[in-house]
Design goal:
Enzyme I, Chain A, domain 2, about 15% strand, Glucose Oxidase, domain 1, about 45% helix, TIM Barrel, binds phosphoenolpyruvate, eight-stranded parallel beta barrel, 17 strands, binds magnesium ion
Length: about 600
């Protein structure tokens, strides 16, 4: 895919987090399939054993360091999740079998250790014991770390960096992204991923420019190479020429100028030109982002993805731990509202809960509300914590992945039980707590009239709605082109849900990434969306877009879009309209 001039080498991926960065490259996270295979001689055995021992020691130290960092940042209890990982580095059965394999097969230690660990995981996964099955995740994680040390690619969240770098990686999981060194990581590029993959969403909320879907890029670049990353257009340029650097310098200055202009509307209302207020709120993944919610000019939190509290954990967080986090969100959003979404673990999110990692088809499996109804104790702990937090601010509660009325009713029944328990225990909570459901499965959109009678609001999760409507894996870079939010089928579902909401007197928002696609804002407003919830970095641009639009015109645009059959024609129609109303936003 690369094209060359005498100096520039350019690759085109998907820009998923805006911004321009230029720095040295650090290549990390090569694919497991890339584990080298070599035959060795008997006399090489001692040096392979020495390398293995050094990697085990380094992995142990790395785990202790991470444990300490987490203890300092979030607390000792959270840090104990790495105890089980530490046990794996000391597991004699695993280590001895690798050493025997080394002597027997005469292959390099990375290869032998990987094979032994895989066999070990396979046997554990087949034992009908949830505890042992859970150990598979720890062993896989530790194996990956040991192999990275053997290959000189250890991962510490890039905290070892002593100067700015751009990270080139096969993929970054949400837990990796959470550990990232925000001071010295200027940008990242991954081989896998899409606009709606979790690492892309995290990059936007951390304000780090990023590109995804550049297959093979890890082997095309070497640590120390110099690159320029354009997170707006998805271009990655190695060895940029002086001409390119000057050109990008100008682009960056222009963008900074526009950012300043956007700053000036931060404290204004997100009203359309004809005076309709559109609630503009922010999506967050962790309470640490609360300061940027206020700075962005958002009206509270439209989606708090609570999964982060459950990630990197051996055990689910306790009611007290969750209560503390939700209370903080409630207090910091006291002027507005905070929508706390109940647990949405599964599929693209790391899950250390029994049964989850072993599902053959996790996106259609026991995830989100299904998992919560399947494990009512886990769910009730979270519901109680959210209810208790509602005493400290305007909290709203939202269920993810509702596919039928029965799920909603069962969730509400458990919520009623929690209300009763808390009342008996003397805990305060908001008696009028508003309950909403996400519309992210086509069936939910189609029965929105039934659902609307039993909730106070809807929020459309377009990331999943597009995925499930079009049968396109939202994280698979090979089919990114088929992931079309402006597909007529998606638009019909949004229109159906919006009509059902309004006929039943409730409001409807969009909290998927589509809400932050500024060219699609006119379409969403025209379809009747009352609230947009976007990553904090997108709030100023979306506010500017809303303020530049006329609702009446948006309705006409939505009507016209609904007569069109072709997603690209609809996209173009929206782009043309948005391009006339706020051309400057397309330059940033
Ligand atoms: C969505 O599906 O659009 C959504 C907001 O939820 P998540 O991205 O967390 O699945
Ligand atoms: Mg979703």
């Amino acid at each position: 895919m690369g094209s060359s001039t005498p100096t520039d080498t350019t690759w085109q991926g998907w820009g998923v987090s805006p911004g321009i960065a230029e720095a040295e490259v650090a290549v990390h996270w090569k694919n497991e399939e890339e584990i080298p295979f070599r035959t060795i001689q008997t006399e090489d055995i001692p040096s392979e054993i020495a390398r293995f021992e050094a990697a085990l020691i380094a992995t142990r130290q790395e785990l202790l360091d991470i444990q300490q960092k987490i203890a300092e940042a979030i607390g000792i209890e959270d840090a104990s999740i790495f105890d089980a990982h530490l046990l794996v580095v000391e597991d004699r059965t695993l280590i001895d079998e690798a050493l025997r394999g080394l002597e027997r097969d005469l292959h390099n230690i990375e290869f032998v250790f990987h094979q032994v660990a895989e066999k070990y995981c396979h046997s554990l996964a087949n034992i009908d014991d949830p505890y042992l099955q859970e150990r598979v995740v720890d062993i896989e994680d530790v194996t990956r770390r040991v192999i990275r040390h053997l290959l000189g690619q250890s991962f510490d969240g890039f905290h070892h960096l002593d100067r700015p770098h751009i990270i080139i990686a096969n993929n970054l999981t949400p837990s990796d992204t959470a550990l990232i060194n925000r001071d010295l990581v200027r940008g990242f590029v991954t081989e896998q991923g899409s606009r709606t993959s979790h690492s892309a969403i995290m990059a936007r909320s951390l304000g780090i420019p990023a590109i995804v879907a550049l297959p093979g890029i890890c082997s095309k670049l070497t640590t120390g190479d110099h690159v320029l990353l354009d997170g707006y257009t998805g271009k990655l340029i190695a060895n940029p020429s002086e001409h390119t650097r000057v050109e990008y310098g100008q682009i960056e200055r222009q963008k900074i100028e526009i950012e300043h202009q956007l700053d000036s509307i931060r404290d204004t209302r997100s009203d359309t030109r004809d005076g309709r207020h559109i609630i503009l709120s922010a999506n967050i993944e962790m309470p640490e982002e609360l300061p940027s919610v206020a700075e962005s000019g958002a009206e509270g939190v439209g989606l708090f993805r609570t999964e982060f509290l459950f990630l990197n954990k051996e055990e689910a967080p306790t009611e007290e731990e969750q209560y503390k986090a939700y209370k903080l969100v409630a207090e910091k959003c006291a002027l507005h509202a905070a929508i706390i979404r109940t647990l949405d673990i599964g599929g693209d999110k790391l899950a250390h809960l029994p049964d989850m990692t072993l599902e053959p088809n996790p996106f259609l499996g026991c995830r989100a509300i299904r998992l919560c109804l399947y494990q009512p104790a886990l769910f009730k702990t979270q519901l109680r914590a959210i209810l208790r937090a509602s005493a400290h601010g305007r909290v709203r509660l939202m269920y993810p992945m509702i596919s039928c009325l029965d799920e909603l009713r069962r969730a509400n029944a458990l919520l009623s039980e929690c209300r009763e328990e808390l009342t008996n225990e003397g805990h305060a909570f908001d008696l009028a707590l508003e309950i909403g459901t996400m519309i992210e499965i086509p069936s939910a959109a189609l029965i929105a009239d039934h659902l609307a009678r039993e909730v106070n609001f809807f929020s459309i999760g377009t990331n999943d709605l597009v995925q499930y409507t079009l049968a396109v894996d939202r994280g698979n870079e090979r089919i990114t082109g088929l992931y079309q939010p402006a597909h007529p089928a998606v638009i019909r579902l949004i229109a159906t849900a919006a009509d059902a909401a309004h006929k039943n007197g409730i409001w409807i928002g969009v909290c998927g990434e589509m809400a932050g696609e500024i060219h699609l804002v006119p379409l969403l407003l025209g379809l009747g969306i009352d609230e947009l919830s976007v990553g904090t970095a997108s709030v100023p641009r979306v506010k500017k877009a809303v303020q530049s639009l006329d609702l009446q015109e948006c309705r006409q645009l939505a009507e016209q879009a609904q007569t069109m059959a072709n997603p690209s024609d609809i996209e173009q129609l929206c782009r043309d309209h948005a391009g006339q109303r706020y051309p400057e936003l397309f330059d940033c």
